[in-house]
Amino acid sequence: MDSTPIVVDLSSSHQCKASWVGAKAAAVAHLIRHKYPVPFGFCLTVAAYELFLKQNQLDELIAIELGRKNLVDMRWEELWDSALRIRLAFQNSPVPEEVSNGIFEAMRAYDRTSQWAIRSSAPGEDSKGSSFAGLHETILGVSSEDEVLNAVKKVWASLWSDSALLYRQELSLDPRTSQMAVLIQAMCLEDVSGVAFSEDPRGRYLSCAIIEAVRGACAQLVDGALDPNRWILKKPNGEIIHFQQSSEQDTHDDRSLNHHDLIHLLNIIMELEGLMGCPQDLEWTGRKDSLTILQSRPITTLESKPGDKRPWYLSLKPGDETLSKLADEVVNDLIPRLRDEGEQLACEDLQGLDDHELSKALAKRSQKNQFWKQVYYDKFIPFAHGVRRFGVFYNDHLSPKDPYEFLELLKGESMIALNRNKSLAELANQLNLSRPLCEEVINLVNKKSDHKLESTLKEIPGGEKFLRDFKSYLAQYMDVIYAGESLKSKPINVLKTILEHRLLKSDTTDKPLNRSLEEHFFCALPAEQKSLGQTLLGLARQSWRLRDDDNLLVGRIESQLQRAIKESLVRLGVDCSADLPLKEPESLVTPMMKALGVAPEEREVPQVSWVTDTRTGDPKHHQQIGRQLTGQPAAAGLAKGSARLIESADDLGEFRVGEVLICDAIQPMMTQLVPLASAIVERRGGMLIHGAIIARELGLPCVNGISDIMSQVKNGDSVSVDGYLGIVTIGSAEFDLEWANAEPG
Length: 745
Fold this sequence. Notes:
globular; 25 helices; alpha+beta; D-amino Acid Aminotransferase, Chain A, domain 1; about 15% strand; Dna Ligase, domain 1; 6-stranded antiparallel β-sheet
């Protein structure tokens, strides 16, 4: 690496080797050599990146972040968390003096520009075999020397973004060998910009080129912030065979190119295809006489393999304009509709319907359940990006020590789960205020006499109010599905949880927003960024508020489908008294509708399978000496307690104060257990999943991302949780054994 220069000028084509400056910068230098209109500038080579890593020991941080778990096994949320921490570490690390001096000297050689465009140019990027288009950072309109340094660090860090890591994983590239050069060019911005493909990358139109245009910067098209105009032109004569107008423009929009502009662009991309030796994907700005080429790269079309979720993962990062539209749709339309439909279905008297009407109700519930699950996938999950988008924006401008400090600005939002827990705490307080009532509830729980609940409690002082509030609680908050079962149908389990909550000190007060931190945030923003900061904070708060609500509301639709399925099974003579969860309940809908539509003597009852508990009481793994499992440190703290695995609806009722809650993932349907826990351990990983968020709010240690945790622990095991280092010790820790075996005195 010593022989590689730190900075090379783009006009020095002999120095612009792809191994030094990346394929993108090498291609730009090639265009300059052939006299194409390209913005002047220079490139930071991979040597600058390596020097930055070495001086700040960032290679060690990256090794730690990617060493907790095999990259193939990391969930998208875990990749995002690692990327956020790496990005902040890059942002808070100084650029080596040798590198900064080289940048400043190169900038001063050009006194014809006041603004710069900072672009990624990683070796392997924009090659024939792979394209990282839109995955690495591009920062436009950078002015001062300090801003250029910060922009360079962001581009370097984007090598480790969640999307870039996922893409490398899909291509079987080793991220540990990744490097990043940075292209620094004079900012060139005309009234219209866009992309042009010398071939249709989708392969739909043969012998055709595609040109897309947006107003302003091309980056807004690449990032998905603006919807483009699109022309499909026949080669070589330029006949327009299809035009798609942007949904965002009016008839006088400045994104419209005339036919001469289109023909000029078509001729350019056909020339470049011949020059570069393969079909080209061109970014440009300006019209015919002022056209400037920003970059040109090979067209790469990766075939989607079965099960390849890369396109969907990338859709989880919508642009700011798209995110705002999504927020309006989710908050003002989808969530109210979802809430109303759940309430309407819950109020319907299924037992009063005849068989034909029940069959129609079954079909309606099945359709709604499928519809809302798809909406959850297509709309609600991408809307969660509002929190992540704000987190990156906050960290970029404030560079805090804690990468999750931004979450303090999102607390205090009203959520269904929080309101549910307040109601639960109030029910627990009623038991504390009446000893006879509490003792009778304990007696009913011990005898599992939920059928005697109403008749027994009505006779006890305070019992009638408790019963009324309890029924309201079940209808409003427990009409959801967990592990295939309706929580509303398990009142004894709910009573068990209420009895445990009475042992806690009740605190139902709302935590106020951190106003001083909010003021600090806005004071730190440049004037031109304050409006965007306000918008992103608002979107993040909406996204944060609905992160639990959507799960619970969709769960209520599923619960109402299951209610109709159970009622249909009873009509068909199936014994549902065991109240076990059904295997594949959706598969029963069609045969049950068919059976309900004929005379009783002609009915064919569908084959029904139930989910039974197959867990053994004494796994072979159990050992005396503690074993350590490593995961992600999701919430700081140290705690020790008995393990309690949560895998079924019945497990919810068995949880006791002080136990360590171990599960696949904390779901909104079970967050009422978290205040009872001493610590949380989850199989799923991520700093912004429910368990991690609630654990930090309550000050509980949390470790997540341990893929085999559910098979490594049994109920009652002694578990120590280190939320600082992300370590879970099962069984007696070595220091405990040493203390126990020490001689007195």
